[in-house]
Amino acid sequence: WRPDDEDDPRRRGASGPVKVRVPAKVNLHLGVGPLRRDGYHELNTVYHAISIHDELTARRGDTLTLTMEGEGAGELALDDSNLVIRAAHALAGYAGVLPHARLHLRKQIPLAGGLAGGSADAAAALVACDTLWGTGLSRDELAGIAADLGSDVPFLIHGGTALGTGRGEAVSPVLARPTSWHWVVALADGGLSTPAAYAELDRLRAAGAAGEPLGSTDALFAALRQRDPRVLAAALGNDLQDAALAMRPSLAATLKAGEAAGALAGIVSGSGPTCVFLALDQADAARIAAELDTAGVCRDARVAHGPVPGARVV
Ligand code: ATP
């Protein structure tokens, strides 16, 4: 692509609909450091994109509108508070174009589930509008805009498995063997607020009631370089898990049921309440998901694999 190439679709923009798929994320390691002056915690986290997707379709329009179906439809405001609309405005402002598009969101990622669904939708909106408007930004430029929208948004532009530092917005890919890991994702009824989970962790730490902080990611990186899910299982960890369990004690039964069903490990995803379980292989994941469904310890148990790419035009 050359900047003077008038025929390049990224320069002209798209006339037809642009459809973007974006994955959910789990944190294989979520190390929460001290509270910073700006109100965020210093994070040391390893993000991992899994095959539960939202889909955003962008069409040409005379104004900016958003409609949606699926998870959270009817609960989620579709106005300027929605991360999709905020992302479209942010890109238009950066690129100096009018923020005109008709956007439609098909959501499979639960709301406030600890899977970064809102951040995923923001990443999808950046990629979709960039193509629709022909603004032709690089992934790194999009990730720069993404960082102002939310700590997890830059990762969801890139996908795969990546280290996140700062408040999570500084992302660098993790070099790992090309392996697929198999997960069972246990969705819960209702959500948990991310800020409330961090506040609960601060409270537990102040009271001396939180577990030891996770520390280094070395064991996890070593595990990702091998192909043995048992080794990866032993290296998973989440500093927010105690806080999520304090806020939603029933998650302890979900975690126990997954391990009783043969999962190699189970952790709360991000700030919860979704729990994720690592399985030996795809067949085992399907069997564990069926057992969790039967045990009635979650709203829905889905199988997923990772890593998968970030927000992409399909
Ligand atoms: P994280 O794992 O990043 O903490 P989460 O999965 O717990 O996030 P999200 O679904 O990303 O939670 O959303 C958190 C809140 O963001 C929602 O409760 C909602 O108020 C707001 N929000 C704004 N736009 C969206 C969107 N498009 N999808 C989901 N939530 C959105």
Automatic annotation (TrEMBL):
tRNA-binding found in the keyword field: no
Catalytic residues (positions): 25, 152
Region of interest (Disordered), ranges: 1-18
Catalysed reactions, semicolon-separated: 4-CDP-2-C-methyl-D-erythritol + ATP = 4-CDP-2-C-methyl-D-erythritol 2-phosphate + ADP + H(+)
Pathway: Isoprenoid biosynthesis; isopentenyl diphosphate biosynthesis via DXP pathway; isopentenyl diphosphate from 1-deoxy-D-xylulose 5-phosphate: step 3/6
GO BP terms in the entry: isopentenyl diphosphate biosynthetic process, methylerythritol 4-phosphate pathway; terpenoid biosynthetic process
Pfam families on file: GHMP_kinases_C (PF08544), GHMP_kinases_N (PF00288)
Domain of life: Bacteria
Binding site for ATP: 110-120
Domain GHMP kinase C-terminal, residue spans: 221-295
GO molecular function, one term: ATP binding
Enzyme Commission designation: 2.7.1.148
Residue intervals of the GHMP kinase N-terminal domain: 82-160
Keywords assigned: ATP-binding, Isoprene biosynthesis, Kinase, Nucleotide-binding, Transferase
UniProt xrefs under SUPFAM superfamilies: GHMP Kinase, C-terminal domain (SSF55060), Ribosomal protein S5 domain 2-like (SSF54211)
Functional note: Catalyzes the phosphorylation of the position 2 hydroxy group of 4-diphosphocytidyl-2C-methyl-D-erythritol.
PANTHER family the UniProt entry points to: 4-DIPHOSPHOCYTIDYL-2-C-METHYL-D-ERYTHRITOL KINASE, CHLOROPLASTIC
NCBIfam families: ispE, PRK03188.1
Sequence similarity: Belongs to the GHMP kinase family. IspE subfamily.
Protein name: 4-diphosphocytidyl-2-C-methyl-D-erythritol kinase
Gene that this polypeptide is encoded by: ispE
